[in-house]
């Protein structure tokens, strides 16, 4: 037809349309089907969505993805966003696998195609989620042997992240020898596939808190009556030097959790209190392994029910590149775990949002999932969830998702699983695919449950 709009005009129009409208246009006629299948249509849509639901993995891989792969990812992210607007999300699929390798921790990789598990002996196992239950493709044993009580395994941690184009796994294990905590950092290559140890070190306290982001590993520990915070730049290649700084935060405060907000700032939490610290320039570690120690004071503080003693709120002390709302975890006065969503810069501290969550919790880039403390009427497990990180309302990504603005961080939603799990050992989820993994033990049998939310 001579009166049809030119192809380039449709591409321009498509850059303003929600995902649902793009999918509907594909169904109108062959001409629009071909136009809406353009690589640029879906790469622009994905980029806008990644501006509000960031994923370093998707950002890195999108230039290599085919148009249909981009469309699938965008559609899945839009479906999950729409589902989270409901009070209840009915999972699309639930699978259960019996664990014979004494796996106790699991992390799902972005995209949901791979899963990493950690066994009681400290070994890491890499497998495809579709082939889970078969022998692992790669196994990496603990590089050295330490003696520890069996009860110490309940404090092990496995954390998966993505930095500088690499999948990074951080392992934290408490040991009785030397009363220390060992940290190990691995590079997980999904193309070969392989697991390679990048670095390992110990801290002089058996149960250390840690956080990893932006290629930085932060660890906190107590020595005497002082609390120390170590921030190490993980060497991701043989050419990267070991860099670190240790901050002396002064008299011991009951710091419990920490969040690296950016390469310049870290947020520490104590019961009913938050403390914002600057991350100083790191120094190269000396040949004897000693790192410089510097005294540090908070840039800003927040205390439940009290006026900020520094005169400056945490949200207004953040770096200028921070927009929208950020979050962290803390504990209430009775030591219940709480998700705290900070106000946006310039907002009053009264707009701070707090959710009491279960003992097991997993963060996605914009949403958090946790295990509810109470089951439903039949004793089946229920997950809870909420948005914990947003951008300003005028970001195009929200319009692409069919929204008029950012999600309401005060809302929660629930996911009834319809199964009984017994004692839960670990919970993780991947927001890119909507896949949740749960390690549990029931009647002496350990299992891994994989849940697809959409």
Can you describe what's shown?
By secondary structure, the chain is mostly beta strands. Helix 2 (19-26) runs antiparallel to helix 3 and helix 4 (39-50) runs parallel beside helix 6 (67-83). The chain is globular, with a radius of gyration of 23 Å. It has helices at 7-14, 19-26, 30-36, 39-50, 56-61, 67-83, 314-317, 396-400; strands at residues 93-98, 103-108, 114-119, 124-128, 138-140, 157-163, 166-175, 180-189, 194-203, 209-213, 216-223, 226-233, 243-251, 257-262, 265-270, 273-278, 283-284, 293-295, 300-303, 327-331, 337-341, 353-356, 361-363, 367-371, 382-387, 413-416, 423-430, 435-442, 445-452. Strands 10, 11, 12, 13, 17 and 18 form a six-stranded mixed beta sheet that branches. A four-stranded antiparallel beta sheet has the order 1-29-28-27, with no helix packed on it. Strands 2-3-4-5 form a four-stranded antiparallel beta sheet, with no helix packed on it.
């Amino acid at each position: 037809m001579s009166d049809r709009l030119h192809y380039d005009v449709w591409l321009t129009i498509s850059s303003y349309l929600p995902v649902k409208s793009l999918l509907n246009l594909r169904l109108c006629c062959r001409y629009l089907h071909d136009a809406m299948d353009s690589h640029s249509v879906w790469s622009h849509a994905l980029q806008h969505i990644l501006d509000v639901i960031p994923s370093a993995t998707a950002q890195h891989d999108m230039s290599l993805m085919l148009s249909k792969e981009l469309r699938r990812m965008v559609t899945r992210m839009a479906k999950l966003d729409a589902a989270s607007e409901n009070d209840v999300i009915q999972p699309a699929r639930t699978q259960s696998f019996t664990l014979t390798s004494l796996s106790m921790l699991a992390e799902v990789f972005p995209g949901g195609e791979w899963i990493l598990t950690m066994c009681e002996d400290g070994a890491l196992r890499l497998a495809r989620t579709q082939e889970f239950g078969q022998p692992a493709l790669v196994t990496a044993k603990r590089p050295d042997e330490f003696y520890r009580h069996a009860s110490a395994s309940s404090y092990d941690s496995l954390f998966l992240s993505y930095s500088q184009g690499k999948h990074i796994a951080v392992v934290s294990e408490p040991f009785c020898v030397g009363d220390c905590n060992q940290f190990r950092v691995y590079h997980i290559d999904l193309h070969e596939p392989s697991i390679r140890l990048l670095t390992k070190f110990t801290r002089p306290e058996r149960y250390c808190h840690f956080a990893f982001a932006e290629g930085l590993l932060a660890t906190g520990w107590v020595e005497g009556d002082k609390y120390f915070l170590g921030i190490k730049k993980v060497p991701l290649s043989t050419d990267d030097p070991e860099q670190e700084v240790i901050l002396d935060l002064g008299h011991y405060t009951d710091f419990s959790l920490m969040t690296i907000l950016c390469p310049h700032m870290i947020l520490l939490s104590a019961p009913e209190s938050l403390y914002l610290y600057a991350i100083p320039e790191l120094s190269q570690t000396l040949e004897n392994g000693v790192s410089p120690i510097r005294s540090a004071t908070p840039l800003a503080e927040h205390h439940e029910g009290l006026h900020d003693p520094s005169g400056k709120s945490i949200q207004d002390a953040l770096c200028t590149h921070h927009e929208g709302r950020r979050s962290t975890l803390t504990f209430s006065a009775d030591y219940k775990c709480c998700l705290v969503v900070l106000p946006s810069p310039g907002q009053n501290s009264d707009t701070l949002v707090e959710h009491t969550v279960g003992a097991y919790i997993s963060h996605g880039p914009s949403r958090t999932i946790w295990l509810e403390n109470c089951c439903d009427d039949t004793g089946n497990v229920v997950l809870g969830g909420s948005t914990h990180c947003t951008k300003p309302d005028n970001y195009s990504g929200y319009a692409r998702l069919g929204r008029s603005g950012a999600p309401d961080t005060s809302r929660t939603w629930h996911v009834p699983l319809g199964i009984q799990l017994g004692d839960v050992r670990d919970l993780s989820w991947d927001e890119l695919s909507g896949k949740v993994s749960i390690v549990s033990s029931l009647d002496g049998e350990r299992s891994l449950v994989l849940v697809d939310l959409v």
